């Protein structure tokens, strides 16, 4: 899965994403004294952003293409399950990625 | 370490060292995933320098590799990094005496860990009376993370280019998202947010502009807030207010 975008498009994304991220970081540091508080409703919403965004990002990667055993039991799914278990027990990026890659390749070898 | 450096700066660097175990593999994946997705080494390192926010970089790489709409890529980066609004608001009082230029520099290197460590230090008893202190401790943490992040990205780029495709290193990207997702699902409302987001994103996977991803994230957040309002899975209830998100989220 490699991108077909040209360098101009990719740099545009990098710059736009970077400027927007910098603006987010600078927001209240710059505005301090004029606006000091994030409105409570925004705070409440922000709490659930990580859970929602990361779930939305990974779910299509692991969703089965069809309701058959072959479609469900894929090496990627085995690796994903191994990673979830590792994340649950260790909450550590290194262990999670290691377990997921090991699960993927083990399943590719066996299936 | 040069003893002429401000002691606060040295403290910051020292307190950051244990965190690097989690940062280094993350940075390596950011480098590897970039070249796997077809970005040039320069673009991959440029992403790390310009955006400097791991989870959002991986999301951008993932989406670019799938040829998602450019607007969706930028929007996803923004949504993932929105949490930093809270850090910015929370740490702003400690930076208020600094010049605009130094404040901007401090803002650029603001990350989950730099915020968490600096705020713990600034609110500790030792520093209670001096919220005007120079930001040496913060910069010790933030700059250490910045240097390690860039170096890790470069090493990841070199490594990723040298490893055969059959190793499937690109699979590390969804795995890192899982590593961030699992700790983020800590209670019933956040579980509701994740499940609803996953379902909407999967159902909408074929939509143009990757609208399924954006819709999933938005509907998921609404579901989380709604579940929180209704008090799903809560016995006491904390009266709302949101509470602080785990500062270690999103970058560990």
From TrEMBL, chain A:
Superkingdom: Archaea
Spans through the membrane: 12-33, 45-73
Entries under InterPro entries matching the protein: Brnchd-chn_aa_trnsp_AzlD
Keyword Transmembrane helix in record: yes
Pfam family, one: AzlD
Keyword terms, alphabetized: Membrane, Transmembrane, Transmembrane helix
Protein name: AzlD domain-containing protein
From TrEMBL, chain B:
GO cellular component: plasma membrane
Record's keyword terms, sorted: Cell membrane, Membrane, Transmembrane, Transmembrane helix, Transport
Subcellular location as annotated: Cell membrane
Membrane topology: Multi-pass membrane protein
Keyword Manganese in annotation: no
Transmembrane segments annotated in the record for this chain: 20-39, 70-95, 136-161, 167-185, 192-225
Presence of keyword Secreted: no
UniProt main location, coarse: membrane
Sequence segments annotated as region (Disordered): 233-252
Family, per entry: Belongs to the AzlC family.
Name this polypeptide is given: AzlC family ABC transporter permease
Species name: Halobaculum lipolyticum
């Amino acid at each position: 899965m490699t991108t077909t975008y040209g360098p101009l498009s990719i740099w545009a994304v990098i710059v736009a994403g970077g400027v927007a991220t910098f603006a987010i970081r600078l927001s209240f540091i710059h505005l301090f004294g004029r606006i000091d508080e994030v409105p409570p409703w925004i705070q409440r919403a922000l709490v659930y952003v990580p859970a929602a965004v990361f779930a939305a990002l990974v779910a299509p990667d692991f969703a089965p293409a069809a309701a058959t055993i072959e479609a469900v039991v894929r090496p990627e799914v085995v690796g994903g399950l191994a990673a979830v278990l590792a994340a649950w027990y260790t909450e550590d990026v290194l262990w999670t990625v290691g377990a997921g890659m090991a699960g993927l390749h083990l399943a590719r070898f066996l299936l | 370490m040069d003893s002429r450096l401000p002691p606060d700066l040295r403290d910051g660097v020292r307190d950051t060292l244990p965190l690097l175990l989690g940062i280094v593999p993350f940075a390596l994946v950011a480098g590897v995933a970039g070249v796997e997705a077809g970005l040039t080494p320069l673009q991959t390192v440029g992403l790390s320098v310009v955006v400097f926010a791991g989870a959002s970089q991986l999301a951008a790489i993932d989406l670019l590799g799938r040829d998602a709409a450019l607007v969706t890529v930028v929007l996803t980066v923004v949504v993932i990094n929105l949490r930093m609004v809270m850090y910015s608001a929370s740490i702003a009082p400690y930076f208020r005496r600094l010049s605009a230029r130094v404040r901007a520099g401090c803002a650029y290197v603001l990350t989950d860990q730099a915020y968490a460590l600096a705020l713990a230090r600034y609110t500790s008893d030792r520093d209670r009376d001096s919220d005007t202190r120079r930001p040496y401790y913060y910069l010790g943490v933030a700059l250490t993370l910045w240097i390690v992040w860039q170096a890790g990205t470069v090493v990841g780029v070199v490594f990723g280019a040298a490893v055969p495709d059959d190793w499937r290193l690109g699979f590390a990207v969804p795995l890192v998202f899982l590593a961030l997702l699992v700790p983020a699902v800590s209670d019933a409302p956040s579980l509701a947010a994740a499940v609803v987001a996953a379902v909407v994103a999967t159902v909408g996977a074929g939509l143009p502009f990757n609208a399924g991803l954006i819709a999933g994230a938005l509907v998921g957040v609404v579901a989380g807030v709604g579940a929180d309002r209704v008090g799903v899975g809560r016995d006491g209830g904390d009266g709302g207010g949101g509470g602080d998100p785990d500062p270690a989220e999103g970058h560990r």
